[in-house]
Amino acid sequence: MSTEEGKTTAHPAPFVPKRSRVTAALLAIFFGGLGMHKFYLGYIQTGFIVLAVSVVGSLVSFGTAFIVMAVVGVIEGALYLTCSPAEFEDTYVRARREWL
Fold first, then answer.
1. DSSP string for residues in the chain
2. What confidence category does residue 28 fall into, taking pLDDT thresholds of 50, 70 and 90?
3. What is the pTM of this model?
């Protein structure tokens, strides 16, 4: 009987970087109109969408699009701050919930 028989190899859990809930919330509150919190959380495509809506939309709507995206950022920042650190980690880092 070989030593390898009967053994199962455990696969390590995928690496998920830790993200600070407070840092994400502050970025959302102060720079939410530019999508900086999305980039910080690793949502690169979503960050570019927010940035494009803010910049291009503001050119067309005379700044209204940026104000709307900034308000959405403040709401997301408040959501980040009101959840527990474990809930934030599970919802926004591991499960990758990108929008409100």
1. --TTTT--PPPPPPP-----HHHHHHHHHHHGGGTHHHHHTT-HHHHHHHHHHHHHHHHHHTTHHHHHHHHHHHHHHHHHHHS-HHHHIIIIIIS-----
2. very high
3. 0.79
